[in-house]
Amino acid sequence: MKKILLIDDSLFHLTVAEDILKNKYEITTAKSAKEALGYLSNKRLVPNLIILDILMPDIDGWETYNLIKGISLLRDVPIAFLTSLDGDAEKDEAAKLGAADFITKPFEEGELIKRIEAIIGKHEAKDDS
């Protein structure tokens, strides 16, 4: 079963996304970047996809993205932003970083599943080539 790490400081959004995805994926949730980095350090968790909020206390999603990509084992793991931000500047920054996708909240269940399947499928195809 593919593994997804959901990182969001909102328990509501974590729960909703987990409920949508838990029947198809092995889900780990983190309420902060520090908690997520704890899971990811020392090879404790190597997910197939990381879904990351931008607006978080302490360490925001932008910095979290860079910290995760700085871990050599995780450099190729796709990261998608899932955020309430919907501006062109945020979308441009995500694209510049190389994010796998930029999904805005609120999201529809079918759309979230479709986009996650596309990210994982694209990443697997890249690994096969």
**Spatial order of the strands forming the largest sheet:** 2-1-3-4-5
Number of H- or I-type helical stretches: 5
Q: Which outline best applies?
A: globular
Low-confidence stretches: none
- Give the end-to-end Cα distance, rounded to a whole number of Å: 22 Å
| Overall pLDDT confidence | 94
What is the chain-wise order of helices and strands? EHEHEHEHEH
Share in β-strands: 15-25%
Q: Which sheet architecture does the biggest sheet show?
A: 5 strands, parallel
* Percent helix: 40-55%
Helix and strand content put the structural class at alpha/beta
Radius of gyration computed on alpha carbons: 13 Å
Q: Find the count of extended strands (DSSP E, 2+ residues).
A: 5
If you had to describe this structure to a student in words, what would you say it looks like?
There is one protein chain. The chain is α/β, with parallel strands linked by helices and 129 residues long. The chain is built from five helices and five strands, in the order βαβαβαβαβα. A five-stranded parallel beta sheet has the order 2-1-3-4-5, with helices on both faces. α4 links the parallel β4 and β5. The longest helix has 20 residues. The protein is globular, with a radius of gyration of 13 Å. The two termini are 22 Å apart. The mean pLDDT is 94.
